[in-house]
Amino acid sequence: MGFAHASSFPCPPTTSCLFPPHPAWLIPHLVHRFANPARFLRIARWATPLTLALGLVLTTAGLVIGLFFSPPDYQQGESVRIMYVHVPAAWLASGGYLGLAIASAAALIWRHPLATIAARAIAPVGAAFAAICLMSGSLWGKPTWGTYWVWDARLTSMLVLLFLYLGYLALSAAEGERGNDRKGAAILALIGAVNLPIIKYSVEWWNTLHQGASVSILSGKSAMAPEMLAPLLISVAGFSFLFSAIVLMRMRAMLAEQRVEARSRRLAEAVA
Amino acid sequence: MTHTANLWASYIWPAYILTIGGMAALLAWSWTSMRTAEKRSDALKRSRQDQ
After folding, report:
1. How far is B7 from chain A (nearest CA, A)?
2. Structural domains in chain A, sorted by start
3. Do B12 and A136 make contact, defined as CB atoms within 8 angstroms?
4. Where do the coiled-coil regions begin and end (chain B) (predicted)?
5. Is A78 in contact with B23 (Cβ distance < 8 A)?
6. What are the pLDDT digits (tens) for B12-39?
């Protein structure tokens, strides 16, 4: 028995009209719906300042509360304040790579015109966050463990993530120079996604100096005091909005560069 | 007291400066490249319309 179908989800021709639509049909439909660069730009023009403003306000609030108003840890003392920059950077480095892998899959499977641009926009931002995560982690490690670096499973898998980002950037740039469609870089991004569960579960699978997770997104449970959890979540939200704003700006820049190249080519052809 | 002051100067402030500086650099780079590219695209579009 089907219900009346929402007009925004037109029925596929071969299936019965059900609401909500089946995910197997809905996901490709949404992917193709946003494949239009003009539609994307209409959304990005108002989303960019909004995400930027939200990111700046939330990041400032989270970091100020974390630095000056949250309590020191009973074991780590004041050095726990590094958590408010280290943890959001780590989550976004991993989350960014997931986005890179999904965009690469969309580029390979559906030849989505925006997917390759999204992947290329995410990669340098994710690499920067991975580098920030590693460096702030080193600065946290010295007063806590007595060393800046140890070849521990979590730290090593995070370093591998940074190398995967750099590998993607290098391969994508090389393929772009040759005029290829960057398939090799997309395949590298997909293969590299195997590192994400290794990062997540490294503290459980191996004996590591790095502590286990204090906050579980899946179960919604936290071993952290609310006075520390609140600024951490505010920082994570702020960093996420800033990450989104930077990616949107980079995608807009790439689309504008593509338009310039296309128009210059057309002008050159008209002159010739 | 000295230990706490050292902790702030040697580890906490550098971690924050590194993160905020890195993010500010990323924001400035993305903003500048977006504005430059969109200005070039608009200028080319206008020159084509004038022709």
Report:
1. 7
2. 44-64+79-252 (1.20.120)
3. no
4. none
5. no
6. 999 999 999 999 999 999 999 999 999 9
